[in-house]
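Hey, can you fold this one?
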Amino acid sequence: MKVLSPAKINLFLETGSYEGGLHRIISLVDVVDLYDIVELEESACTEVKFLSEWSIPDKNTVTKSIAALKEIFRIEKNVRITINKKIPPGGGLGGGSSNAATVIKALAEMWKIRASNKMLMEIALKIGSDVPLFIMGKRCLVEGFGEKITVKGVSPHTLAYYFLVPPFSVSTGDVYRENDALKKQGDLTEGARKIKILNECIMRRDIAGIEANMFNRLDMSYFSLWREGKEVKERAERRTGKRFFVSGSGGTLFSVFLCKEDAEEMSKILNIDGWRGYVVESIQTS
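Sure. Predicted structure:
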């Protein structure tokens, strides 16, 4: 079985209170067509292999997902999984979380596990707070600690993006700790109001309104720790006249467009040494 594991970006991200080792959030997330390729086959023993230019730890979201499914559903079968990594890790694009969700869904099918989407999301949440959104697999509103996923009322209109991915990996934990140190905690109720406005702008295909209402609470914390990110953002905005935003905890920067052709034009005029450029667009189904 061969399946695709997509990336994500945060169009809006507000953080709230810190409870039990996690921060409450509210985020409008888009799932995009930058993919890792995941291959699964029955095997005498379980094995996970990454074809990757980046170092992936032996204990990872995929191994944890396999172990969770085998324990919960008392599965004695084994699987060999090979993941061809295309999504740079540590870039705020959710590659590891996506891999976990993709494997959970694929193994549920392969092993004929009778489980609702809700149950799969509950398992996914045990692996990581971003994993459930990839079970949904399309643009959605994420709330709480990642457990509340809403697609009803979320604009389905496709957007295109130009990514600038840095040559360094960003630690999510470090960025959140810096955010706490800077006392940058936000208001989730106000965040919900602003996301509603942003969603309406996407519905109207109002690119100026979209850019004006996008937000990431963690961007200043990222820039505080990795100054190159801020320098590249400012350089890209000067060169192009477009606004650039931070995905997740960094370090990917991105600009937003109404069509892929405009994003491709951006890719022709903007080249930052050491940073990788990608043109992607929204996907609407998992």
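The first helix runs from residue 61 to 72. Let me know if you want another pass with a different chain boundary.
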